[in-house]
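Work Package 4 report. The design task specified in the project plan requires that, given a folded chain encoded as structure tokens, an amino acid be chosen for each position. We show below one input record used in the internal validation round.
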């Protein structure tokens, strides 16, 4: 099995930055695509960003393009989400997820397509 553990969430003022981390353990020999999703209270889980196993292909949701950057460590088992220009609308629980495919799918509606999930880390952006 695969375990995903997120870290780095917290409280930040609008306009500030945070870096989330996701550590992958377990069956790490599978070339997973990794992604970040978020869910705000009363809203559905939404896709934020994804990165291929190689790190060469990334995808972003329109609301975060130009502000968020997804990357993965050389060892492939840690994925980061650098978030800048944060707004209160970015407040949510952020989840790390892994897809058994080595490259991101065209879409992950509601998270469908991801095979493993972390428990999430809370990001709160104050105005």
């Amino acid at each position: 099995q695969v375990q995903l553990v997120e870290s780095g969430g917290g409280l930040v003022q609008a306009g500030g930055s945070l870096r989330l981390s996701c550590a992958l353990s377990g069956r790490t020999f599978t070339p997973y695509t990794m992604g970040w999703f978020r869910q705000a209270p009363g809203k559905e889980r939404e896709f934020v960003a994804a990165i291929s196993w190689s790190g060469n292909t990334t995808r972003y949701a329109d609301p975060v393009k130009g502000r968020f950057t997804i990357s993965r460590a050389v060892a492939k088992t840690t994925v980061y989400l650098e978030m800048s220009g944060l707004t209160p609308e970015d407040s949510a629980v952020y989840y790390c997820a892994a897809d058994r495919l080595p490259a991101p799918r065209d879409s992950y509606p509601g998270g469908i397509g991801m095979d493993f999930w972390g428990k999430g880390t809370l990001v709160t952006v104050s105005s």
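The chain is about 0% helix and 50% strand. Validation will be extended to a larger panel in the next phase.
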